[in-house]
Amino acid sequence: MGSGLKFRWVGSPEELQPGQFGILEPAKDAPCAGSTFDLILVPGLAFDRRGGRLGRGKGYYDRFLCETTGLRAGIGFEDQIVEEIPCEAHDVRVDFLITPAGIFPCAP
């Protein structure tokens, strides 16, 4: 996948090693997770109830989500849900929002 994001299989926390900024991550030779997932947890700075997501502006998750299949769930807090996120054609929407208050389906 040319998205810049690579997801890899990890069997236990002991398989993680310090990466950039000392954050634990899978080893570079860990098996690639492929492109089919049951559930993809998608971070964001803000979301709307139609599944719009505001990220960091580099498009890494949008490119990754275009190359994969699976249920897409935005994860965050209630105060990250706003009235509307401006979206363009290349922006990929999430199917659900997950917050501490519950799981909310997004309307198309």
- Assign the structural class, choosing from mainly alpha, mainly beta, alpha/beta, alpha+beta, or little secondary structure: mainly beta
Number of strands: 8
Q: Share of helix among residues?
A: under 10%
How would you characterize the largest beta sheet?
4 strands, mixed
- Order of strands across the biggest sheet? 3-6-7-8
How much strand content do the residues show?
25-35%
Shape: globular
Give a short overview.
By secondary structure, the protein is mainly β. It has one helix spanning 60-66, and strands spanning 16-18, 24-26, 36-43, 46-47, 53-54, 69-75, 96-99, 102-105. The two termini are 27 Å apart.
Q: How would you describe this structure in keywords?
A:
about 110 residues, about 30% strand, single chain, Rossmann fold, 1 helix, two-stranded antiparallel ribbon
Description:
Helices cover 6% and strands 31% of the residues. With 108 residues, the protein is mainly beta. The chain has 2 domains: 1-34, no CATH class; 35-105, Rossmann fold (3-Layer(aba) Sandwich). The strands form 3 sheets. Strands 3-6-7-8 form a 4-stranded mixed β-sheet, with helices on one face. A two-stranded antiparallel sheet has the order 1-2. A hairpin with a 5-residue loop joins strand 4 (46-47) and strand 5. The two termini are 27 Å apart.
Outline the fold blueprint.
Layout: E1 16-18, E2 24-26, E3 36-43, E4 46-47, E5 53-54, H1 60-66, E6 69-75, E7 96-99, E8 102-105
Parallel strand pairs: 3-6, 6-7
Antiparallel strand pairs: 1-2, 4-5, 7-8
